[in-house]
């Protein structure tokens, strides 16, 4: 925590809201018993000052909580799960306690779980999704180490450990060209990161005069049923795609299953590429070509940042690129 945030007290909030400290305390602990207008004044004072209540009774015996809050949008069909599992394992081995919070979808949905983590004096907050400007301001005011993973924004909140989604798109387009595909189709979720991969793929694919690939967006999270629902439409296109590049391994598995169910051979007649290189990609039949992200390395880079901060140094770069790789399997020729 920075000195300015640490020095704020209930009395400061009370003075700003023109109420007693006891009223502020009641609002934090049981807001429904405080008059609505009074509660709104307190809320505005809290926002204006950037005050974070200490939710740990009696405070901490030391300045380090060793608590790392990890925020994930959803568990079902999540491409983050295996990366998060690797991260929790590495954090545990390094002596940290992980608090996993399933925040739900949407940029603003993460704000209250972040407030709860900051109130418990988390040593770091790890976020896997993009956040809105109000939440970014809250995190920066807190002084807590913030680690954004699976992305490399130009201006991280604090530290970003990830990779370029646009570069992935470009490399997938080059891979498809090298393999001799002529009519790729993109089946991607409606997310900013997927759109970055789309933009990279389209730019690279069209850079030599090729016709732009077909595109289909699916809702988040993508399910097997989404792939199956889109498959018939995709296969009716003219020319018919000879490669479907998917936004997740689950979508890729759905496309491969549906193709084989209707007698389209994978990969001879249709190639399929996934994303995330989850265990599903390796276990399926056919096995799925996918983009691998090194979750263990992300975790170790995060631990290095935490250890530097604990030693009162700030030597870590703000953007740490862990790269990615394309793992070839049976679903592409």
Shape, principal axes of CA atoms: elongated
Strand order of the largest sheet: 2-1-3-4-5-11
User: What is the CATH level 1 assignment of the largest domain?
Assistant: Alpha Beta
Order of helices and strands: HHHHEHEHEHEEHEHEHEHEHEHEE
User: What portion of residues belong to β-strands?
Assistant: 15-25%
- Regions with little confidence, pLDDT below 50 for 5+ residues: 1-5, 58-62
Number of strands: 12
Oligomeric state, counting identical vs distinct chains: single chain
Q: Roughly how many Å apart are the termini? A: 53 Å
Helix segment tally = 13
Structure notes:
The strands form three sheets. The protein has a six-stranded parallel beta sheet, with helices on both faces. It has a four-stranded parallel beta sheet with strand order 7-6-8-9, with helices on both faces. The protein has a two-stranded antiparallel ribbon with strand order 10-12. The chain has helices spanning 3-7, 10-17, 21-29, 36-49, 81-93, 111-119, 133-142, 165-178, 192-206, 224-235, 249-261, 279-283, 295-310, and strands spanning 67-72, 97-102, 124-127, 145-149, 159-162, 184-189, 214-218, 243-246, 271-273, 290-292, 319-321, 325-327. It starts with a helix and ends in a 6-residue tail after the last strand. Helices cover 43% and strands 16% of the residues. Mean pLDDT is 88; it is low at 1-5 and 58-62. Helix 6 (111-119) packs parallel to helix 7. By secondary structure, it is an alpha/beta fold. The protein has three domains: 3-49, Orthogonal Bundle (434 Repressor (Amino-terminal Domain)); 67-162 and 295-322, Response regulator (Rossmann fold, 3-Layer(aba) Sandwich); 165-292, Response regulator (Rossmann fold), CATH 3.40.50.2300. It is elongated and about 75 Å long. The chain has 13 helices and twelve strands.
